[in-house]
């Protein structure tokens, strides 16, 4: 016992010594801070609040090293309130990655999930979806209570409400809550596809059977019922056939570019495989309005002579509105010449693309899209 006490005293002395010599203008990752962190992690009973200088060094290290194993280990052990905002920002930025989910789990364990709820109600639509996604992964049994209001009240954007359906569907209680909305006829029509994917792939036979009485997924070009996204992601496709499907009449190349070929209407897909998972790829094709990028929202404008123009917003000033139509035509419209204009809730991308593809062609298309990745610098 005496040896352990002496050893503990020595560790604490090292922390105080090095922390005292650390100044505000030191580099972001100071070697002395790193040494303090390594020392602190070895001390099983160390109280971070017992050393102001040691705590300052740990906080500096955390702010300089987000996402590392030690970052999460330190937060899990000491739960420093000073790092909550940074942890939330990191998690939101990496919401589709293991590190982002791990950060969200720590926020819940620290009872600081309020930071995620605030992001849902914020002005950034991307962060709102990210926050809902994280709650779905980290909220556990609390997820339905936190997110069902988004689904039932219908005030949030379609992207946020769809993300909420997916998140709530990760729990059995959530699936029961969704099923109740479906059977009572209270589920919004624009959430039917998302709910069907969740409920028809439920591991609970009762939920799956009851949902099938009210929901079905759309048929494909060969009149076959569309499998759930959960089933589709398990399939492997043929890349060459997928590229042919991409080039098919009325398909992706009509609105998207890949490596300079195609039309510049929707997002350039040259690196889409680096941005979306296999599951997200299927959702973006089959339910495009649920995943509209904030940079690709569509507007409808009606001119004073009755012409209706629908397209992506390119730019807007006090005097004019510039839209790019589905044909790739850019139109600059004087606001004075418009009877009305509004942002649409649906994507410019067609809702029923699966009708132009067989199930296998759809699988092949996704396989091809997943190969379109950012080329790493040599």
Low-pLDDT stretches: 1-27
Work out the strand percent. 5-15%
Order of helices and strands: HHHHHHHHHHHHHHHEEHEEEEEH
| Radius of gyration of CA atoms, rounded to a whole number | 26 Å
**CATH level 3 topology of the largest domain:** Leucine-rich Repeat Variant
- Mean of residue pLDDT? 83
What is the strand arrangement across the widest sheet? 6-5-4-3-7
Largest sheet: 5 strands, antiparallel
Examine the secondary-structure arrangement and name the CATH architecture of the largest domain: Alpha Horseshoe
Please give the alpha-carbon distance between the first and last residues.
Answer: 56 Å
| Number of helices, where a helix is a run of at least 4 consecutive DSSP H or I residues | 17
What would the principal axes of the Cα set say about the shape? globular
Content-based structural category: alpha+beta
Number of beta strands = 7
CATH first level of the largest domain: which class?
Answer: Mainly Alpha
Specify the helix fraction band: 40-55%
Q: How many independent structural domains?
A: 3
Topology (SSEs and partners):
Layout: H1 2-20, H2 31-42, H3 52-64, H4 69-78, H5 84-93, H6 98-109, H7 114-120, H8 125-138, H9 143-153, H10 158-168, H11 172-183, H12 192-199, H13 205-212, H14 229-232, H15 239-247, E1 257-258, E2 261-262, H16 278-286, E3 298-303, E4 308-316, E5 320-325, E6 330-334, E7 338-343, H17 359-369
Antiparallel strand pairs: 1-2, 3-4, 3-7, 4-5, 5-6
């Amino acid at each position: 016992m005496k040896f352990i006490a002496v050893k503990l005293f020595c560790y604490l002395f090292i922390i105080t010594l090095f922390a005292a010599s650390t100044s505000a203008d030191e580099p972001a990752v100071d070697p002395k801070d790193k040494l303090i962190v390594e020392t602190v992690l070895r001390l099983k009973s160390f109280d971070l609040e017992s050393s102001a200088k040691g705590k300052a060094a740990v906080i500096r290290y955390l702010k300089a090293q987000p996402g590392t194993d030690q970052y999460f280990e330190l937060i899990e052990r000491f739960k420093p309130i000073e790092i909550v905002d940074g942890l939330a920002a990191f998690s939101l930025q990496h919401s589709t990655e293991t590190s982002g989910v791990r950060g969200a789990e720590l926020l819940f364990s620290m009872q600081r999930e309020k930071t995620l709820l605030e992001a849902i109600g914020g002005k950034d639509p991307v962060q709102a979806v990210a926050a809902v996604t994280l709650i779905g992964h980290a909220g556990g049994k609390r997820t339905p209570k936190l997110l069902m209001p988004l689904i039932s009240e219908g005030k949030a954007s379609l992207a946020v409400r769809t993300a909420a359906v997916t998140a709530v569907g990760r729990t059995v209680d959530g699936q029961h809550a969704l099923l109740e909305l479906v059977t009572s006829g209270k589920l919004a029509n624009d959430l039917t596809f998302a709910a069907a994917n969740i409920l028809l792939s439920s591991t609970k036979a009762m939920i799956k059977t009851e949902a099938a009485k009210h929901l079905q997924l759309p048929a494909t070009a060969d009149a076959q019922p569309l499998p759930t996204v959960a089933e589709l992601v398990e399939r492997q496709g043929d890349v060459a056939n997928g590229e042919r499907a991409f080039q098919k009449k009325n398909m992706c190349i009509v609105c998207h570019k890949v490596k300079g070929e195609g039309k510049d209407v929707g997002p350039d897909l040259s690196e889409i495989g680096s941005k979306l998972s296999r599951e997200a790829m299927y959702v973006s094709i089959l339910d495009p309005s649920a995943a509209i990028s904030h940079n690709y929202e569509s507007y409808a404008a009606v001119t004073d002579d009755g012409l209706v123009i629908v397209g992506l917003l390119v730019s807007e000033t006090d005097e004019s509105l510039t839209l790019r139509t589905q044909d790739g035509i850019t139109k600059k419209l004087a606001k004075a010449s418009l009877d009305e204009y509004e942002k649409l809730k649906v994507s410019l991308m067609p809702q029923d693309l699966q009708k132009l593809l067989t199930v296998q062609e759809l699988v092949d298309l996704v396989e091809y899209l997943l190969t379109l990745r950012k080329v790493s610098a040599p």
